[in-house]
Amino acid sequence: MEALVQRFPGARLGVNAVTALVIWGLLTWVNQVIEPLMSYYLATAAMYATAMFGMTILLGLSGQVSLGNGALMAVGGYIFALTSMNWQTVPILGTPWNAVWSMVFAGFGGVVFGAAIGGIAARLRGPYLAGLTLGIAVGVPAIANRFPELLGGENGLMLQVPYPAGGYTSGDTSDEAVDDGGEVPLDEEPVYEELPDDFGDFDEEFTDEFGDELDSDPGDLSDEDLLTEDDLLSEDDFLSDDDFLTDEDFTTEDGFEAGIDEEIPEEDLLSEDDFLSDDDFLTDEDFTTEDGFEADIDSDAGADLDAGLDGGSEASEGADITDPAADLDLAGVDAGVDAGFAIEQWQASMAIAVACVVGFIALNLVRGRQGRVWQAVRDDPIAAAVSGISPAGSKISAFVVSSLFAALAGAVFAQILTYVGPGAFTLGLSLSLLVGIVLGGRNSFIGAIIGAVILVWLPEFVLDVSADRGWQNQITNNAPNFIYGLLVVLVVLAAPGGIVGGIQSLAGRLRGQAKSSSSP
Amino acid sequence: MIDFIDYLLGGISSGAIIALMALALVLVWRSTRVVNFAQLGQAMFTTYIALTVRELTGSWFLGLIIAMAAGLVVGVIVHFLVIRPVKRLDTSGAIIATFGVLIALEALAAMVWGGDPEAFPPPINNSGYEAFGRIWPFSPYDLLVLASVVFLVLALSVVFTRTNVGLAMRASAFNPEVARLSGVRVNRMLALGWAIAGLVGAVAGVLVAPLSTLSPTSFDIFLVFAFTAAVIGGLDSLVGAVAFGIGTGLVIALVSGYSDSSNAPLVALVLLVLNLLFKPEGVFSHHKARAV
Q1: Alpha-carbon distance B250 to B137, whole Å?
Q2: What CATH fold (topology level) applies to the domain B2-113+139-278?
Q3: What is the mean pLDDT of chain B?
Q4: Which of B35, B116, B276 sits opposite A120 (nearest CB)?
Q5: B55-88 per-position pLDDT tens digit
Q6: Residue B214 forms beta bridges with which residues?
Q7: Alpha-carbon gap: A315 to the closest alpha carbon of chain B (Å)
Q8: Gap between the Cα atoms of B230 and B20, Å rounded
């Protein structure tokens, strides 16, 4: 293989492309046959792997300890969320917006931020860089809080994933979901967003003119107030209904107050046939023919809400490495039960595709000239500079590439959570990337993949063990991090190459023994 | 103008505590050339111990003393189990190892005491003094904090400048090989540096806990503040750590007062970036920054 590659310069590209395509095909097939819950794990692992390919380059090849990659994931996630929420068409080009464009812009944002941080980082070494990027990782929530209108503050932003519902959802599953009134949160936010504008207007009118007034304390109403409400109450629908607005209520002041107080509860207003059967905002077509709406009812809304609630509670808990993964399990299970083709499977195929594209780029960079440049600067910056390599340029380029990967991973993360917020991109996320890459092996992409699998698998393993032994929740939830911390220290002390490095050195020793025993 | 004075007064005690934390980082850096990113994790852990002791005995002071002892022990343990073996390896290994310790300590604290924030009430009155017809944002507790910090810094400076142990520690930090040739047990001095840093961090933790709440991750932000102060001070200088610790606390108090307290991490970040860009060797450092 190596001989072939050296003879034909273009062969390297081909080999890398075939590698990436084979892995993509394999994982896509696996994604078709496994349970939705497993697809969710697959999606999360692919997302971690995408980010950690960048860690391989930054930490392994370039030798820079950075905790900023979680923050750069936030950059990608927020850009994905903002562009997909706010832009219907691509600026300048004018073509219709889709998720791929959001990914492109997320990656572009990652490059810009990576260049900015890398420009500073190139002047720093060791602990200074680690401390600076630690500050960046801790500062991210502050930035979200700084611009609450744009970035949603502490609550973050919900986003609609471009889940191609029509292609996957079968008719009977959607019927099931509609019939199952208890499960379908018709009055919740995500459904509102999908409805025509008319509904929004009507809703607003209703709360402004009736809801607010009825909610306020009747004791505050003076005579003038009551009299001016004539406009409002002269609506034909309400005045003609004898049950709750009689003439007596209007003529005697006491009666009127009592009437507002007791006889017009909000349920009555809401249960009016006029209101619910209004074609403007809930028609049969909305339920049966509009695909996007079906998708929301099936699984999306539930997943959104779960993820949102979990994210919110996480934010208050602070950095916790395993939380985003552990919490999403619930959302994953719910949505998986509701839908025929689960959203997790779509998320996994998207995450796999991104991971394979990123892996392909990374392979080409690392196995080519640039990879040798990074290693040369890591091993001996002065010698590299003497050989005509710019150490600063090398460090910055490593930062930019890893930021690009992190931002893309962040965009994938946003689609897995269907949410972005300070609670999702904590210091714990940055630390978990560091943990994964150190445990898996910081010098190879295989190590990044193994690290990603460990990050997804260990919390589940601990959950299983804890279910058997009956551990308390606070032990179960934190045991994975405790194990991570101990393992990181152990790996740094005993096997700096991580699992991959350990296997390699073990294999090398065995081969050496075989050679020495065979040759006299 | 009165706002300005209020914000400064309110920032003094937190500045003094950040100074202690920066001091702990500097003590470790001087002895082993490692930035201990687990320093505030250790402080968090010993503060939980103080909280437990306080709940059992009702004595804040006893909690403080036990936390200080625990800080000593944890510092020595981390040094012997993690840092000494790892120092033979590359510097990035040491940095990663301290983060590993941080992760493990935060998880362990959450396993033992739970992840929810706990109140750590101040031992004495924490409402501001009243004078000239208004209430100033400076309380008896702030006075206690300030007195404790001044006492600790003075005691440390006496140890470092007036005792043989202090001389040996400074010699070990300045030039380990010559110190070893002169009969100083360098390894013991390095461990002592970690122990004192653990003690100082423990005091800082117990003092800062009443200003917010105590949770496994609530000191993360102070790690950033303390690192900022220590780096601006030169990472090598005890005086620099104290001066810029207080300075960082005051700047954060001013920015938080005039805008919003959620900006504090950004302020620390800006200070750090400016310093690293324009004076990377720090203000009080004795050494020139190493090339490359």
Answers
A1: 13
A2: ABC transporter involved in vitamin B12 uptake, BtuC (1.10.3470)
A3: 86
A4: B276
A5: 899 888 999 999 999 999 999 999 988 888 886 6
A6: B118
A7: 12
A8: 10
